[in-house]
């Protein structure tokens, strides 16, 4: 009795894959047809259907084509078990990574709400959240725990922390706008904004802690380093801050004279 053979079209219908996929699997050696007809067309048998089911199962489990080929070439039960265990651990890791990404996006959405944020600043915020744990670990080796907790707002409730992050974002976003529109650092609106930024920071980190932070030598190559703002905006903010400090010192001196 002749074995029943299936054309590419029929085999595709039976297995639920496309003809293009079958041709690709043939080229890659994942599933080579059992035979060819007189015109050179691919022919498959029942064993190929069983093999395709295995391929689809392994693909569902997240195996790469290379891993599928290796798995199908091994017939040991222990080998399959080992492969499944490794794949399970890999998928768990991927799941954790996806969960972290979702949490990061959700946190950013909560921070920005309806605020129009420039794309570079938005990406910088995401990056800072992404490496937050590494930053905390690095600072823990440089500063006392109470100070590290202050920097990362551990003393605040989740709602307070979120509100503070939102206030900082709005202020930095406004500063970015002033910088891009060429508003001079000594302009009243810029100085007012710098004062507001200082007040926000003072609510979170006491001035003496801020002074200690400024003494840290943070290299751009360190895992701690990141910037929510561009170098140009950093220089702009530094100049605005310098002007504000000079003004405060002058006022303080005048008051002392009186």
UniProtKB/TrEMBL annotation:
InterPro entries membership: DNA-bd_dom_put_sf, MerR-type_HTH_dom, MerR_fam
Key word DNA-binding present: yes
PROSITE patterns (alphabetical): HTH_MERR_2
Coiled coil segments of this chain: 81-111
Superkingdom of source: Bacteria
Keyword terms: Coiled coil, DNA-binding
GO MF: DNA binding; DNA-binding transcription factor activity
Signal peptide: none
Ranges of residues in domain HTH merR-type: 5-74
Pfam families: MerR_1
The name this protein goes by in its record: MerR family transcriptional regulator
Species: Ornithinibacillus sp. 4-3
